[in-house]
Amino acid sequence: MPNIKSAIKRVDVNEKKNAQNKSVKSKIATYTKKFKTALAENNLEEADKLYKQLISLLDAAAGENVIHKNCASRRQAHFAKLLDDAKKA
Q1: Most C-beta atoms within 10 A of its C-beta, which of 9, 63, 72, 81?
Q2: Cα 16 from Cα 49, distance rounded (Å)
Q3: Is 83 in contact with 61 (CB distance < 8 Å)?
Q4: What is the pLDDT of residues 1-45, one digit of tens each?
């Protein structure tokens, strides 16, 4: 346990940021699961709506440095391909 005041504050700040980042990542995982479930059920309208929300979440997470911008871009491309393939089928 730190004794210096600034180190104590740093521990508190890190715990708060860790909780916020975990919340954002959990939300992304939830929407990813919903999106893939909608695709599996061939519910394209729901999948399209979830896709837009998922892209928005990924952009926001990349903007806040919760995930790397390339990771967000890669996931967006992956989800776009999944949605496009489902629409073609």
Answers
A1: 72
A2: 31
A3: no
A4: 899 999 999 999 999 999 999 999 999 999 999 999 999 999 999
DSSP-derived 3-state class of residue 33: helix
Is the Cβ–Cβ distance between 50 and 34 less than 8 Å?
Answer: yes
d(CA 21, CA 57): 12
Please give the C-alpha separations between residue 9 and each of 4, 22, 46, 65, in angstroms, as whole numbers. 9, 20, 44, 21
Which residues, 6 or more positions from 83, have their beta carbon under 8 angstroms from its beta carbon? 39, 44, 47, 48, 51
pTM of the model: 0.90
